[in-house]
Amino acid sequence: MIDPYHTLFFNVALKNGHIMSRPRYEPEQEFIGNLTHELEQKDPDFAWIQFIFQQVDYSRQLMMLKNELLSYKKFAEMPEVNGQGEPRRRKELDSEWYRTVELRCKKIDELMSSHQVLLGIQGMWVEKGEEATQGIPGPLRSAPIEFSIFESCRDELDSLAIFTYRDPRVLLELVHRRFVTDISWYFRKYSGSRMESPSLILSAEDLGNYVHLLVGNITDHLASLLPPSFDEEEHNKEFTTFGVGSGLNSGDSPYATRRKENQSSIPDPLLLPVVEPQVEIKTSKGNFYLSRMKTIPQIHQKLDTEAFSRLKHLPSPYPRSFELLYNKGRTSLLIGSADERDLEAYKRFLVSIYGGFEFVEESEISSCMRIILRLEQSS
Amino acid sequence: MLEPILIVMYSPILQFFIIYLAAYRQELSRFLMPFHEHASTNEWRKVLKALGVEAILPEKGPEYGCDKRLILTFAITVILSVTITLTMVFALQKALQLPPLFRVALPILFQFIPASYFFAFICKWYLGPLPNQPKRMLLSYPRLGSRIRHLMEDD
To answer: What was the ipTM of the complex prediction?
Structure first.
């Protein structure tokens, strides 16, 4: 039975709606690891977190927004004339809106000078509870989902926050991997009654902050990553040797060797493993092609700066997804794309960065979600 | 036939629109794009059907924007408005010394009471939270997220 009382949907967006803000998580490359760790601590019955991203170009809107902010600054600095014809200081000069104009313009310049990516973070949460397991509807949950990891993603202007929903239509959006790609309305409303944009606009370099594999020492403490038939010997042989040494290419592990091979097949970072679309793409209306990582490699050493910077080539003109599924104490990683060939390119790209690992095909409604929702195919 | 001034004096319709214009002045098109959740069991059924899956659902789910509640609120508003109208008619008949302007303005002002009551309901369950004030650095949180605006946009 689906329990609407214990099922929540959410998306992650800017708390104060400053669209030019580029929140980051520190330390680098530890975001997904710490997110998984927090998931384990909260231990819901089921959790699904999607990161959907796509290359975009919002330079025109950004430029218009910058002009609007500069016009406001000019207006605030222009003295007003009082009843006796004497110039006096405007009260706008004391407002925080005025004081932060330059910072916001700087952020806009940074975004305009780099490739832009739209990132949608959304998901589903099925709370564990005695009422839920017994199928007795409990009281409506009033407290929002709390993830300190998202709240830690911040910059000088804004931070991320979770927005929760009970509307089941979000489930359709999740299954079809739809995210909001047209955020022009939020640009227009910025100086008026603004709201947070449901998708974040980031520079391509920022994407690696959110979309990366689990690396670092934290992987030692993540019990949910272990495969169901976990074999200590196999684990030591296959995973722990990966990445040990001065860089990921060091060591004689099969992963390191394969990574070297894969990297040599992509000699220039500019040769992006991206499939150029035949027609202009706005949103994905058709199927989404998905693959699940058969096992999640536990990489103890972080990527070196050069390898990490290559993550800026992750986005493509097609929407791509990176998903975390947590089900009954187990975490799975899914990747997907709106185009089949693009998904292959996405996989090759990840393998070139992190080494070799296997993928299996996954359906839009993953098997573990079927279990948790007790769903049955009607036809 | 009813005179327009009588409709204004003894019904809360105009007052309702005045409150709407004042409250949503930053986003007057809100009634075209209401900002609220649909979380009834019926909505779950529709979603599961769209996904092509079957699942057992509880008979009663978290209800949002329930029609029964709307009918009840509307009925209370009408009762309030009629009561105020009758009270005003009798009161004004006795207060003959009141200037003509007051005799028109008082019923109009009192009709803001049922109008506010109905508006508060519509605001909470249908239109969604009031728009934020312009040029504010911080927005209130927690709040209903804007993702809800874009559900099923492509369908």
So the answer is: 0.84
